[in-house]
Amino acid sequence: MAEGRNTNPFLMLKTIKVPNNIVIVFSIIILAALLTWIVPGGQYDRQTIKVNGVERTVIVNGTFKSVDHHPQTWQIFSAFYTGFVKMSHIVVFILMIGGAFWIMNETRSIDIGILSFLNLTRRFEKYRFIRMLGVDNIIMVFIMTIFSAFGAIFGMAEETLAFTIIFVQLAIRMGYDSLVGIALCYFAAHIGFAGAILNPFTIGIAQGLASVPLFTGIEYRVICWLVFTTLAIAFVLWYAKRVKRTPSKSIMFEEDDYWRKRSEADNERIEYFTPRSAWTVAFVLLGIMLVYSFYFPSTHLRVGLNTVTGPFIPILTGLFAVTSYFALRKSLHFFILNILAFTIFYLILGVLGYDWYIMEIAALFLAMGVFTGFAAGKKNSQITKLFQEGVKDIVSAALVVGFAGGIIAILNDGQIIDTVLYSLSNSLKGSGQLTAVSIMYGFQSLLNLIITSGSAKAALTIPIMAQFSDIIGLSRQATITAFQFGAGITDMIAPTSGVLIGVLGIAKVPYGKWVKFVIPFMLFLAFVAWLLLIPTVTMKLNGF
Fold it and tell me: What is residue 50's three-state secondary structure?
């Protein structure tokens, strides 16, 4: 080995200059435009059908026809406008989240909560067994398991945008970097999304389109989820250990100075107090919850095929009254943390019980921010100013999300996506079962880089794939499993994913550095997923 040569992979990655996220997205838009000049135009007929009680637009197999393609030129600029319109729901969501959390951060409640949490966990180090495992390791395993389960059961994705700020700050406080913070929530949720158990947006829709009994084959999918989650946790613990040992080895060391400075500022002396305004807000919120408890005394929580019915809103109302009283007696900061906790509880309740999506969740967090400001004794103008400052701080993340939507706009307007799908269907003719399921899996993984919506991808591909499965004697469940894996794993690097780009923007992580961090593991997981597809062809599995 030559003297002085640096072979440390983390330091090597750190020296590579990464372009701005917008530059990367614009480069991909140009590449997509070039493809519209090369790939012939094509189109399938589409029809609207009901899948699990919801109308879906799907392609009609056997209706492909060649059409004039539309090479894209000046559209690389108009694609930004189209992309912003297409991604407007995520763009607005990010801006509202940024503004709401900025108001909460002004009170320093999150930082106090993190410090209190870490001080509490340190007390467990007196136990030899806990000390041997490592308190930080236990915390990370617990958090990642929860978020992976959320992704696997009800398809958590966009919701992770709201948790990014919290877990990045937690990771920095624990001595890690922002990549670990993202891994705790976004990365874990998408691992669960890929190893879906009851995910209604992938498994539910795909099985409905393939006329397969809903959520059958769950036993093998649980095994797949356990394998994915275990490997993901092991990877994050391995990376976190090395970063904590030598923080300068992190490829995010320079960028994380933003978060470290915030943490240093929060180390100043904190005054604990409870203003009268906090008690007023507590009574107002309790009154609102009591009204909703009267109008919604019972809620049906749907998890897969199972429905749990109970007085969940009245229960949360009672818990809020009790916990708020003790939090207010301690300080304003703990009352605000209590508001945050119940915001998360209502988010889960709304998603599972009332089909909430981005609009409702954004409204929930905006209300959280406003009530937090009033609880801290802020005036209307002060709350508005803080909200604007939060939007200003996060606007770069929202911009990149809108720009990323332009990639889809170029490919759709060029009318080449259906041509790619038709070429795949032809490649499956005459294939053996294992070869066919491997081709399906590979294609779904690549298509996921363009179309990150699991439900949209299912509507586009499953009607064709299911019929080819019958022709070659392949189980439709195997086809759905190939779709499931492909619809989740490459999400972690998809530049068209508004959620990924939004999370990276919130965490101040360049897209290129995220890819460098996650792609070795993603490729390994993709190989493991292919190995897990083999039993769906070679073994008799329950439900397959």
Answer: strand
Q: Output phi, psi for 488, to 5 deg.
A: -125, -40
- The full DSSP string for 187-211 is IHHHHHHHT-SS-IIIIIHHHHHTT
Q: Is residue 36 domain-shared with residue 171, that is, in the same domain?
A: yes
Domain edge (last residue) among 342, 374, 406: 374
Q: Are 193 and 148 contained in the same domain?
A: yes
| Residues 313, 33: Cα–Cα separation, whole Å | 50
**Residues 287, 365 within the same domain:** yes
The three-class DSSP label of residue 49 is strand
The encoded tokens of residue 534 equal 């083999």
Contact 215, 198 (CB under 8 A): yes
Q: What pTM was computed for the model?
A: 0.79
268 token code pair: 């100043």
483 and 339 part of one domain: no
- Residue 170 domain boundaries: 19-60+109-267+416-538
If you search the block for the tokens 């009267």, which residue do you land on?
294
Per-residue pLDDT tens digits for 525-544: 999 999 999 999 988 888 78
3-class state of residue 507 by DSSP:
helix
Query: What average pLDDT does range 35-50 have in this prediction?
Result: 86
pLDDT tens digit string along 313-325?
Answer: 999 999 999 999 9
Separation of alpha carbons 443 and 526, rounded Å: 12
Any domain includes 95: no
Is the domain of 162 the same as that of 186? yes
Q: What is the pLDDT of residues 264-288, one digit of tens each?
A: 655 556 677 899 999 999 999 999 9
DSSP per residue, 249-271:
GSTTTTTTHHHHHHHHHTTS---
Q: Rounded to an integer, what distance in angstroms lies between the CA atom of residue 374 and that of residue 370?
A: 6
